[in-house]
Amino acid sequence: MPKQIVNIIEFPNLYDILYEVNHLFEFDIYNYKNHKDFIDEFQSNKLQESILILKTDNYAQLQKKITTKNKILVFNLLPISLEKMLDQININLIKQKYHSQSKLIINNYYLDLNSKIFSNKRFKLKLTEKETEIISFLNKEKKAIKISTLQSQIWGHFAELETHTVETHIYRLRKKIKDTFDDDNFIINSKEGYRIIS
Predict the structure, then answer these.
(1) pLDDT tens digit string along 70-93?
(2) Long-range CB contact pairs, 78-84, < 8 A, 24+
(3) Is the bond preceding 2 in cis, omega lying within 30 degrees of 0?
(4) What's the pTM?
């Protein structure tokens, strides 16, 4: 999974400080000497979900150009302890990650990985943890997946499961989707394995 991103805009001293200890972070940091460079890259769609750190005087200019997917942290009351600043960054990254996990769109359905709700515009279906993982994995792979691969990826390489256990989980999941949405073709079974056709 790619790291989350923290963009530091027109704040070179802060970037230099954080760069010295960036090996301690679970996120990547990028430095922009001016807000125009950041906006150019942002509009190229590379930075749609990231955190921005800037000074107060840059806020109004950027607010017109960016979307609400970006969390803006404005540090204008300096000095601030490095520990407090990192706490604020990490809290906002956690919130952003949690929020982004509830946006998985698969065909005409929505899968919320946090609440485990599978829905369309009319109906909702509560899934189990394993059912959520199965749909998420099949959607990510975009090809037919064999039972042995599902077994190792969803239940773990060392899980002692019989083949029919995996098949039973998928059978029940397909039945729930059929009963709730009247969709018998969301997960397709063929000799190559199971897949979601998008």
Answers:
(1) 555 555 556 778 888 888 888 888
(2) 82/17
(3) no
(4) 0.55
Burial of 116: CB neighbours in 10 Å, binned 0-12, 13-18, 19+:
middle
Helix (H) or strand (E) holding 168: helix 163-181
**Do 81 and 144 belong to one domain?**
no
State the CATH number of the domain containing residue 21.
3.40.50
- DSSP label at residue 162: -
Q: In this structure, what DSSP letter does residue 22 have?
A: G
136-189 confidence digits (pLDDT tens): 999 988 899 998 899 888 887 555 666 688 899 999 999 999 999 999 999 999
Query: Does residue 52 sit in the same domain as residue 76?
Result: yes
Q: Could you tell me if 124 and 181 lie in one domain?
A: yes
Dihedral (CA of 185, 190, 194, 197) sign: negative
Of 179, 85, 84, 162, residue with least CA distance to 123: 179
Residues spanned by the domain of 182: 104-196
- Contact indicator for 193, 183 with CB cutoff of 8 Å: no
CB-based contacts of 176-181 (< 8 A; 24+ apart in sequence): 176/125, 176/127, 176/131, 177/118, 177/125, 180/123, 180/124, 180/125, 181/109, 181/120, 181/123, 181/125
Tokens found for residue 35: 């807000």
Tally Cβ neighbours within 10 Å of residue 44.
9
CATH of the domain at 176: 1.10.10.10
